[in-house]
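Support request, priority: normal
Reporter: lab tech (M.K.)
Component: structure prediction queue

Hi team, I submitted a job for ADP-ribosylation factor-like protein 2-binding protein from Pleurodeles waltl yesterday, and the status page still shows it as pending. I've pasted the exact input below so you can check whether something in the sequence is tripping the parser. The sequence length should be 174 residues. Please let me know if I need to resubmit or if it's stuck on your end.
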Amino acid sequence: MYNFVYTGNVPVMMENFEEENFAVSISSPSDAEFDTAVGYLEDIIMDDEFQLLQRTFMDKYYCEFEDTEENKLVYTPIFNEYISLVEKYIEEQLLERMPGFNMTTFTASLQLHKDEIAGDIFDMLLTFTDFLAFKEMFIDYRAEKEGRSLDLSGGLVVTSLCKPSSSPAHILKH
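Reply from support: The job had stalled in the queue. We restarted it manually and it finished. Here are the results:
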């Protein structure tokens, strides 16, 4: 026995199976465009060129940032320069991949889909709009550059999964 499911005006023939349930998922064109943009965004921020751009910028200014409650006046122009540089780069890269891409529309969509975005991408995007996330990124970078980053190696224990052999072949003779 066959049933027809309509996706828009297009009938899709489905065979009935008594023990199985099937779901048809349809996303809107704007959702599909958003998903495509996020996929490209992942590629862009993982690319060596972006990593170099961000690292060069942070190398230029990381000494200005201190891990204190007080925010220096110099942070504001650095934050604005970062937003301008990185947002412009990302927008240009997305426009190359998606002609007609609109950053304003994409930014608005981010708020609607923020729970669907991978943590590392969302954290990076947060540095564009959240000054405290931006400052924390610089403080972490400075700690890493100065060798003060969190060292978890003291808590690591390496244990062999192989039992030591007692066969004579492992005994060295001089």
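DSSP finds six helices and two strands in the chain. The first strand starts at residue 2 and ends at 7. Let us know if anything else looks off. Ticket resolved.
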